[in-house]
Amino acid sequence: MSLLIISSSQRTDSQSAKVASYIAKHSPEFKEVSHIELCRYKLDFWDGEQESKMAPTSPWPLISHQIRKADALVLITPEWGGMASPLLKNFLLMCDNQDTAHKPALLVSVSSGISGAYPIAELRMNALKNNKLVALPDHLIIRNVTEVLNHLDVKQKVIDPREVDLRQRIKYSLYMLHQYSESLAMIRHRHENEPYPKQQEYCYGM
User: Fold this and answer.
1) Banded model confidence at residue 151, pLDDT cuts 50, 70, 90
2) CA distance 134 to 107
3) How far, in whole angstroms, is CA 11 from its chain's centroid?
4) pLDDT (average), residues 9-34
5) Which stretches are annotated as coiled coil (predicted)?
6) Cα dist. 192→33, 180, 185 in Å?
């Protein structure tokens, strides 16, 4: 199983990227793990035309190839003003459901304070309609992110009980993401090889 992690802060060297790196290092169930930091790709905001994604200067074909290979995704967004990142929403608009449909996604919100719930609610409500990603019932909210998931020397141990719990929750969430990726692989196989009659008429959600 292959895992693709998307971090969507508009800043380089962000806390979202730090969380992505932590997740990448703690996903032993997946044989292949890759990370895309969206701010480094300079994607134009999509104009709704398929041709624009394939412009000679667009990095989208490279990103699309990695999406297509992935069996599961982790979508990480910072919370800015109670909202999910525009970069992540643009990414989700650009996703072709032939690449993403019926693939599981773990939603992760990152906050410098004690908030972080609003981006999860926003993504669940309106970000998965046409790309047909399947959000896991569980999600992660990384609160006070500057204080947690930081690099530890070999001799250091996590002693804060809240961070111990957070790391265990991340481990559980990734375990479940792998379980979903294996199960949904069978659905994707049947969707491709035993299609529902005229299923392309239902490529958009209601």
Assistant:
1) confident
2) 10
3) 17
4) 96
5) none
6) 24, 18, 11
In 51-154, where do the E strands start and end?
72-78, 104-110, 134-135, 140-142
Closest CA to 37 of 13, 6, 62: 6
Residue type, 45: F
CB-CB contact of 63 with 92 (8 Å): no
Tokens at residue 154, please?
């070999």
Q: Helices (H), strands (E): how many in the chain?
A: 7, 6
- Bridge partner residues of 134 (DSSP): 104
Q: Where are the beta strands (DSSP E) in the chain?
A: 2-7, 32-37, 72-78, 104-110, 134-135, 140-142
**Residue bearing tokens 């998307």:** 6
Q: Domain spanning 2-146+160-202: which superfamily? A: Flavodoxin domain (3.40.50.360)
Check if the beta carbon of residue 88 is closer than 8 Å to that of residue 77: yes
Q: What is the rounded end-to-end Cα distance, in angstroms, of the chain?
A: 30
pTM: 0.95
Q: What residue ranges do the domains of the chain occupy? A: 2-146+160-202
